[in-house]
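SAMPLE LOG
Freezer: B-3
Tube label: C17
Construct: single chain, 627 aa
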Amino acid sequence: MNTTQIIAQLMQIERLPEQQMTQRQTTAQNLVSILQGLNSKVSSLQTAAQALIPDSITKASVWQSATATTSDPTRVTATAGTGAVPGSIAFTISSLATAGAAVSIGTVGDTSTTKVAAGPVLVGRGGSAIGLSSMDFANTWQSTSATHSVQVKTASAGATVNASGALASTINIVTGSNDTLAYVLDGKATSITLAAGSYTPGQLAAEVQRASGNAVRAVIGANGNLSVTSVHEGSKATLQVTGGSASALLGFSPADMATAAKGADGIITVDGTDNTLDDVRAGGLVTLNGSAQAAGGFDQWSVTLAGGLRQGSATASSLDLGASATLSDVVSKLNASGLGLSAAAVQVSSSAYRLQLTSTTTGANSDISLGASAFAGSTLGGTQQLTAGSDTVLHVGTGPGAYDVTSSTTTVKGLLPGVDVTALKADPSTTVTLNVAQDTQGMADKVKAMVDQANSVLHFISSNSTWDPTKKTGGPLMSSSLARSLASQISSAVIGSSTATPSSAGIAVDKDGNITFDQTKFMAAWAKDPASVQSTLTAFGQQISDLAKQASDPIDGLITNQVKGQQQVISDITNQIADFEVLMTQRQDSLQRQYASLETALGQLQSQSQWLAGQLGSISANSSSSK
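STRUCTURE (predicted):
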C-alpha cells in the first residue's frame, strides 16, 4: 500500500477549513492595504487643505503670500517667506561678505623638524571690526581660562571741526588765489594746498583729505556742510582750523576757527575690566588689563591698534601648542581647535613655508590673528592680515539720508519684511531694485493642489468600489459605507452653502463627479473681491481639513480604526491557523501511526500467506511422488 499518498490525500481533505481561513486572511490583508492607501491620500488632502487656512498663532496664510524678484538676478536673488508684504526698495551692492585670513610674517625651511613655537598662543577673532589688528599675551599673565571676551563699550573719536557755512553746488579752486587751508593737528601747524579745479561738495571733501595726506578725514555732513576730523583719535588728538585762502570758501567762519577741537576717548573691556584709551592711532601698541587674579594684579594683554575703536565684540582663545611644536604640529592643533579657522602650511619656495589661516565664517568679525609671543625666536614670526573679513553691504539711497544694510554673510535677511536677498556680485555703480508683489499664482497653485488631492481621493474610492462582471466580484470598498460617506461629504463641501460657494472662486463638480478648478475665474474673482475669495476658500479648506482629520487621524480616525479592526481580524485568523496547524500535525501523526500498524499487520499476513502457500506446495509435491 502507498500509505504516504493515502495520508497526503486524507490530510488535504482535513485542511479544507484552513484554506477558507487563509482566504479570509488574504481578503482582510488586501482590505488593510486598500484602507491604508485611502488613509494616506486623505491625510495628504488634509495637508493640502490646511494650506488655505491661516495659522492660528502667526496668522500667516497663503492669502498673504508674496513673491520677490530683482531687476538683476545676476547680482541679487530674492526669496519671500512668511510675513512678506508687497513693496519695493532700490540699492547698490557695495561689497560682498568675505572670510578673514592671516599669514605669518616670516617663513621656515621645513614643516616637520624645525621648532617654531613653545607654549600657548592667543588666537584672536573679529579684532579688526573693533579696531585691533592683533592680540597677544603681555608679561603679566596668570589666567588659566581658555576663552576671553573683548568689547569696545565706547568708540573713540577724532577731533572734529565743523564748518558752519554752506558750500556752493560748484566750488572753483584757483591756484594762488583760494587754494590753501591751514590747521594745527596735535599741536603741529600745517598748511595744505588744494589742486586747482571745479568741485562738487563731495569732490572737494575728497580733495581736502587727499591734500592732507590722509592725516584728516573730510566729509559732507547731513546739513551739506564740510566737517574735518583727525585720523588720530582719543582725547590727546586735537585739531584747529586756523585759516588759509580756501577757509572761507570751505565754509569756515572765524567762530569755527576760534578754538581747538579735542577727540573722544575709547573704552575697551577685556574679560570685564575697562580700559580707557586716550591716544588711539593705527599701529599703536597698547597694554590692556584683563581679569583680576587672586594673587593680585591683572592679566595683561598686548594689542596693536588698527585705527579707531569701534563698538562691537571680539573673542580670543588660548591654545597650547606644546613644548616644541613644528609648523606641522601648529597646523594640526589649529585645525583641531574648533576655533572656526582653517590652517595650512603653504610652500612659497623650495625651502620656505608660511603659516596661513582662513576663517571658516565670513563677515567683518571673521578676522584672525595669532599672538607673536608664541613664535618668539622663530623665523615664522607673528601673523599679519592677508584678507580683511568684510560684510555684505547694501547701500540704499544717494542723498543725505542714505544708509547701509549689512550682513556677515552674502544673504541679507529681512531687507523688507519676510524677504531675504542673496548678493552675488558687488557693483557700487549699478542700482538693483527689489520688488515684492502678492503671489496670486502661488495662491492658485495651492488651491489647485487641494482640488487635485480631493480628486485623487474620489478616484481611489471609485476605482476600488467597482463591480467586476467577469469575476462576479466587487472592489474592496464596494460595501464600505465609510468610503461612500467620505466621497459624498467631499462633493458636498465643493457645492458649498448659502454663505460660501466655492464655485464663485472657480471650484466646481462636473457631470462625471470630478472636481474642477478654473484658474482664470479664480484670478478674476480675487482681483474683484480678494476678501470674499479668502473667506470662501478658507471656510472650504477648513471643512475639508476637518473632514480629512476625522477620517485619517492617526489615533482615532475613522479609517484608522477600520485598519486597526481588520488588523485584529488578521491577527485572530493567524492565531486560528496556527492552532489548526497544531491539530493537523497531531492528526497526521495519528494517521501515520495507524497506517504504520496496518502495514505491519499486512506484512505479517503476507508472510503467513507465503508460508501456507509453501506448505501446500510441499504437500502437493509429496503426494505426486508417492504415486
